[in-house]
């Protein structure tokens, strides 16, 4: 059974940093692209970033470029999102998902990030 | 960026009756590889998104056959043939033809 479990969320002040993790199991993690998608409270979904199997290709939404870094450790079956210079508008539930060609098939339950002073 | 527009934003439905959600993209979703990367997601209250349909009309594993997707180019539709109580939630269309991936605003399906 495919499982994705996010962690690392919490309350942080504007300008601060957080590192999110996503532990994957039930599939060969190193064979798949992975994604982060976020959802502000009561709002819709926003794609954040994608990473390929060997960490050599990364794509970001413009609003996080230069502040967020997606990475992975295939030996640990883990996906990460390093978030720096956080802003109030980054407040959201962050989901990791397994990427297929043209869609995301499995999603974690999310980890909540709150940016507030 | 490709803008995805869903209608209606709210759909009150009687149990056992059909429901239909429309999704329109601001430009064609046909990829250079010939595929159209339009998918539909369901988000039940308090739950993460769940994939229902990918590449316009392909049902994902475990998705009941009362869900169907159709469309082409810029106009797409998700249909629920007979709404059940467990179908209550928000439905999103999503395009992955062009970066950045973008989503529709969401359509809330509720029981009358």
Folded structure, characterized:
The complex is a heterodimer of chains A (117) and B (112). Chain A is an all-beta fold and 117 residues long. Chain A is built from no helices and 11 strands. In chain A, strands 2, 4, 5, 6, 9, 10 and 11 form a 7-stranded mixed β-sheet that branches. Chain A has a 4-stranded antiparallel β-sheet with strand order 1-3-8-7, with no helix packed on it. Chain A is globular, with a radius of gyration of 13 Å. The N and C termini of chain A lie far apart (40 Å). The relative contact order of chain A is 0.32. By secondary structure, chain B is mainly β. Helices cover 0% and strands 48% of the residues of chain B. Chain B has strands spanning 4-7, 10-13, 19-25, 38-43, 50-54, 58-59, 67-72, 75-80, 89-95, 102-103, 107-111. Chain B is globular, with a radius of gyration of 13 Å. The termini of chain B are far apart. Classes of the chains: A mainly beta (117), B mainly beta (112). Chains A and B meet through strand 5 and strand 10 of A and strand 5 and strand 10 of B.
Sheet with most strands of chain A: 7 strands, mixed
Bin the helical content of chain A.
Answer: under 10%
- For this structure, the quaternary state is heterodimer
Strand content of chain B: over 45%
> If you average the pLDDT of chain B, what whole number results?
97
Please tally the β strands of chain A and state the result.
11
| SSE order of chain B | EEEEEEEEEEE
Overall geometry of chain B comes to globular
Q: How much helix is in the residues of chain B?
A: under 10%
Whole-number radius of gyration of chain A? 13 Å
Sketch the major β-sheet of chain B: 7 strands, mixed
Count of helix runs of chain A? 0
H/I helix tally of chain B: 0
- Run of helices and strands of chain A: EEEEEEEEEEE
| First-last Cα distance of chain A | 40 Å
Mean pLDDT over the residues of chain A:
97
Structural class of chain B: mainly beta
- Hey, which two chains have the biggest interface? A-B, 20 and 25 residues
